[in-house]
Design goal:
The strands form three sheets. Strands 3, 5, 7, 8, 9 and 11 form a six-stranded mixed sheet that branches. Strands 4-12-6-10 form a four-stranded antiparallel sheet, with no helix packed on it. The protein contains three helices and twelve strands. It has a domain of about 180 residues: Jelly Rolls (Sandwich), CATH 2.60.120. With about 280 residues, it is α+β, with helices and mostly antiparallel strands. It comes from Catenuloplanes indicus. This is Peptidase. Keywords: Membrane, Signal, Transmembrane, Transmembrane helix.
C-alpha cells in the first residue's frame, strides 16, 4: 500500500513536471464561418507523431500536422494551454483505397490533460465510422474553457500540457497496417478568464445575530424537576450497561462476542458427544 502511494505520487509529479516542460506559446488560430479553424500564417508543418504519452510530438495551436500513418497505430501530440482559452481539435484521415478495404472503420480522437485525465468533448464528432466506400473521415473535438483554478474533485481543465490521441477502435483484421494520411490542427481562441467563475454579490458572512432563548418551567407540578418522572420510568425497563467495566478499548460488543464464542464451543462439544460412535473393543 505504501509503495502504491509513492508510485501514484511520482506519476502525478512527473505529469506536472512534464507538462511544465512544454512551451506555453500558443498562437491563436483564425476561426472560419463554418466553425472550423485555419492554420496560423507562417506556421511550420509538423510531420511526426508520437506513439505514447511520453513520446508525444509537441505542437502549438495553429500549427498544421501532416503525418503518414498506418491503420491500427496510436498517434499522440501534445500542446500547451493557457487559462481562458477554448481549444478546437480537428483531424482528417485519408483512408486507403476502397478496393483495398474489407469493411467499415471506426476512428476516435481523445484529449487528456497533464495528469492523464480524459477531458470531455463538448462539441464535434469525436468517434465517427467510415464506411467502406468513404475516401476520408473527419473528426472534431471542442474542449471546455481552460480555467485558472478548480476544485481537485471537479476535473475541470486547468493550464498546462494537453495530449491528443488519434486511434482506430474497430476495423476488420485484414485491414490492419494499411497506409493512411492524417491531417490535424489545434485551434485556440481566448474566451476570458471569468466566463464561468462568477462573482459574489455580497460577502459570505456567518449569521452573528442570535435569537432569543425560550423560557422553560423550573419544576413539574409535583415539585420535581421537569422530566424527572420520565427518567425514573425509563430506568425501570431500560437495560443498563453500567455493570460493565469502564475500559477505553472494550465495549458491549466485546462481551457479546466472547459470550457467543463460549456458547459456540459448548454447542460443539455437546454435538460431538451426541454424534460420537462408541468405541468397539475386539
Amino acid at each position: 500500500m505504501r509503495l502504491s502511494r509513492h508510485l501514484s505520487g511520482a506519476v502525478v509529479i512527473g505529469g506536472l513536471l512534464f507538462g511544465a516542460a512544454v512551451p506555453a506559446q500558443a498562437a491563436p488560430a483564425t476561426p472560419t464561418p463554418d466553425g472550423g479553424v485555419t492554420p496560423s500564417p507562417g506556421a511550420r508543418t509538423v510531420t511526426k507523431a508520437g506513439t505514447s504519452f511520453l513520446t508525444a510530438t509537441e505542437i502549438e495551436a495553429g500549427q498544421p500536422v501532416e503525418v503518414d500513418a498506418a491503420t491500427g497505430e496510436y498517434l499522440y501530440w501534445a500542446f500547451a494551454a493557457r487559462a481562458g482559452q477554448v481549444h478546437d481539435i480537428e483531424a482528417t484521415v485519408t483512408l486507403p483505397p476502397a478496393a483495398d478495404r474489407t469493411g467499415d472503420q471506426a476512428w476516435t480522437i481523445e484529449v487528456f490533460d497533464g495528469l492523464r485525465r480524459r477531458q470531455a468533448c463538448v462539441d464535434g464528432v469525436q468517434s465517427p465510422v467510415a464506411k467502406t466506400a468513404d475516401a476520408a473521415v473527419e473528426l472534431r473535438c471542442s474542449l471546455r474553457r481552460v480555467r485558472s483554478w478548480a476544485e481537485p474533485w471537479s476535473g475541470d481543465p486547468l493550464p498546462g500540457t494537453y495530449y491528443v490521441r488519434l486511434s482506430i477502435t474497430d476495423l476488420p483484421e485484414k485491414d490492419l497496417g494499411q497506409s493512411a494520411k492524417v491531417s490535424l490542427l489545434v485551434g485556440a481562441t481566448n474566451a476570458g478568464t471569468s466566463a464561468d467563475d462568477g462573482e459574489l454579490a455580497a460577502p459570505l458572512d456567518p449569521v452573528t445575530r442570535a435569537g432569543t432563548v425560550n423560557a422553560q418551567p423550573s419544576a413539574a407540578p409535583s415539585g420535581q424537576p421537569l422530566g424527572a418522572a420520565d427518567d425514573e420510568d425509563t430506568e425501570s425497563w431500560t437495560w443498563s450497561w453500567d455493570w460493565l467495566p469502564d475500559l477505553p478499548k472494550f465495549s458491549a460488543r466485546w462481551f457479546w462476542t466472547a459470550g457467543g464464542g463460549v456458547l459456540a464451543a459448548i454447542a460443539g462439544v455437546v454435538g460431538f458427544a451426541l454424534t460420537r460412535r462408541p468405541r468397539v473393543r475386539p
